[in-house]
Design brief:
This protein is α+β, with helices and mostly antiparallel strands. The protein has four helices and four strands.
């Protein structure tokens, strides 16, 4: 099983630039030593340490990954999509209400004429609402 990975150009650019300047000195020195070694092999242990240090330094500001106790920033919303979502929610609520209040003794007859009642007509499905 692999215990190290060869450093790519992205890791090299990050190590040379200001992106990793805020990390602890020991981690930066260890990364520079790994990048300077033969084949530029970086151990996974070092990568996990770098990832943890970066995650602790810059916690995510929004979404499911936001740190506990920090307020999540609202995402910008498209008004057209919000209106569409409201229409879909209303349609689903109406369908659920119709399903809950439908006549239980009516059977589907055909696609064109809707339902046919097998007993005395009931107001829920058999008597047309005007």
């Amino acid at each position: 099983m692999a215990s190290a990975v060869r450093a790519g150009p992205r890791l090299r650019r990050a190590a040379e630039g200001p992106e990793l300047a805020a990390l602890p000195r020991g981690l930066r020195d260890e990364l520079q030593a790994a990048l300077g070694s033969e084949g530029s092999v970086v151990p996974f242990r070092l990568l996990r340490s770098l990832h943890a240090a970066l995650r602790d330094r810059d916690p995510p500001a929004r979404g499911a990954g936001a740190a506990a106790g920090t307020p999540a920033l609202p995402c910008p919303q498209n008004p057209e999509l919000v209106a569409r979502l409201e229409r879909i929610k209303a349609r689903l609520a109406n369908e659920e209400y119709r399903r809950m209040t439908r006549c239980d003794h009516c059977q589907p007859w055909s696609l064109d004429s809707g339902q046919v009642c097998l007993r005395a007509p009931c107001r829920a499905c058999c008597i047309p609402q005007s």
